[in-house]
Amino acid sequence: MRKIFLAPSLLGANPLNISGAIASLEDRHDWLHLDIMDGHFVKNLSFGPEYAAALRRYYPGSFIDTHLMVDNLDVILPQFIEAGSSLITIHAETEGHLLHASLMKIKNAGLRAGVALCPPTKISSIDESIFELADLVLVMSVTPGFGGQKFIASSLNKVRELVSLRAVHKYNYLIEIDGGINENNITQAVLAGCDAIVAGSAVFKSEDSAAWLSKARDAIEEALKDFE
């Protein structure tokens, strides 16, 4: 049975008690997902590099999955590399001429590198060299910028296309999905081919975050058992 990574998004946590939110997971998660928004690429602001650096200091053993929804990559990216993220994902739609060089910069720093695709972005528009470099491809299943949006079901078609592309060309990327994931669609995402699942509001606004993750993992394992 293949490994599925559960990545609670801290964007959905209480901003006045992030440490309490992380503790509430009771180590039933795999990654901590950090959504970075600059107010330009998306119309919202969230965390900065100091926040990412603090996460690394206080949770030195955690896999920090950082998703940059930003412009000015040449300025911002080095700050998050320095902050100690484990994996940094950048958007294919931002400053396209910097995409390949930015992925190389991440990988040369010894980190894993990901590329994110907004809902309208077609896989065919991305040069194959990007998929050769990427350790992860993030499929956005909502319009990036705000938590709590409704899941775009057609995003699963993109996931299936990425699975096929990976098999044909023997790429090594994981496939992650982010946006509107809840208990009603998480197994659909996994069965479509997702390896990593980001969920924010569903996890942190539930009555028991740890229990939500355990139930989700049980449902995923059962679905995969039947599927395989």
The domain tally reads: 1
- The name of the CATH superfamily reads Aldolase class I
The CATH topology label is TIM Barrel
As a percent range, the share of strand residues is 15-25%
- Any low-confidence stretches, pLDDT <50, length ≥5? none
**Residue-averaged pLDDT:** 93
Strand order of the largest sheet: 1-8-7-6-5-4-3-2
Give the number of helices.
Answer: 9
- What's the N-to-C terminus distance? 8 Å
- How would a textbook summarize the main sheet? 8 strands, parallel
CATH architecture name: Alpha-Beta Barrel
Explained architecture:
This protein is α/β, with parallel strands linked by helices and about 230 residues long. The protein has helices spanning about 20-25, 50-60, 75-85, 100-110, 130-135, 155-170, 185-190, 200-205, 210-225; strands spanning about 5-10, 30-35, 65-70, 85-90, 110-115, 135-140, 175-180, 195-200. It has a single domain (about 5-225), classed as Aldolase class I (TIM Barrel, Alpha-Beta Barrel), CATH 3.20.20. Strands 1-8-7-6-5-4-3-2 form an 8-stranded parallel β-sheet. Helix 4 links the parallel strand 4 (about 85-90) and strand 5 (about 110-115).
